[in-house]
Every structure is written in structure tokens, then in C-alpha cells.
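Hi F.,

I've been meaning to write this up properly since the lab meeting, where we talked about keeping a consistent format for the predictions we share between groups. The idea is simple: the sequence comes first, exactly as it goes in, then the C-alpha cells exactly as they come out, then a line or two of notes. No screenshots and no reformatting. I'm using this chain as the first example so we have something concrete to point to.
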Amino acid sequence: MFAPPSPRMPRALPAGHRARLLRTAREVSFPEGARLFEEGGRADRFWVVRTGSVDLDMRVPGRRAAVIERLGHNELVGWSWLFAPHVRHLGAEAVTPVRAHEFDAAAVHELCRDDPEFGRALTRWVGDVVAHRLHAARVRLLDLYAPYGAGGGL
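Output, unedited:
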């Protein structure tokens, strides 16, 4: 969110919009091992990690949950709040103690309604994150479960 774009991280939210969003944040912390949310749960908030790391995981029938990606400083945790039906597609767990900015989805939706330019920028930022996470999930699941891993021209 705050870092410049890189091959690993999607485009950051522009500075003015970022400042506006941060005015709605509250600081929270999670101990190591805390579940931020479960796959299938209601998506009514999201976080940006300040310190620590969070694993995103996916339930796999008959197996342990597969860790899809590890998130850290300035990365968005949770995007399902933006898109109906507002249900979590993954789970999230604090791997280390985490400090984060927490955002109430209803308040952010209201900001988006009141300022369409802000809403477009936020939607584009979250959409970039979703595209990145989809690719990461695909690669990770191929590494875990495909006979020859993610390499080899798929």
C-alpha cells in the first residue's frame, strides 16, 4: 500500500487517497497464531500490515490448509469486503506478532460513494491485489499438488 510497485507487489494506492483512507483506520495488534479471519466468513473489515507477517491459507479437503502467500509490511490483508457477496475466499493467520491498520468496510464503502475518484482508485488498487493473489494461489497450489510443480509450461 505504501511501497512503490515492484514485480511482487501490486501498484500502491496514490498518496492523497492513501492519506484519506488512513484517516478511517484504527491501530490493532494480533498475537502470533491468532486467526484474523476464516475462509467463508463475513468480510466486514480489512487490514494493512505495519509490522509482522500474516499467512493467507486455503482449505484443501482431506489435507491441512495450504498456505498461499505470506504478507508483510504495507501489504493488504483482505479484499473480499469490496466485492459482493462479501464472504472471505481465504483464511488468515498471524505468523508473528502483527501490528496493523484496521479498516471498517462500511465506512470505506461510504467514502467510495461520496468520492467516486477515491472509489475508482481504491477499486483499482484492490483489483491489482486480487489479480496478484490469484496468480500466487495458482502457482502455490501447482507447487503443492501438481505432479511436476508450477514449472513446465502450464
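Notes:
Helices lie at 15-22, 105-114, 116-145.
Confidence is low (pLDDT under 50) at residues 1-9.

If this format works for you, I'll send the rest the same way.

G.
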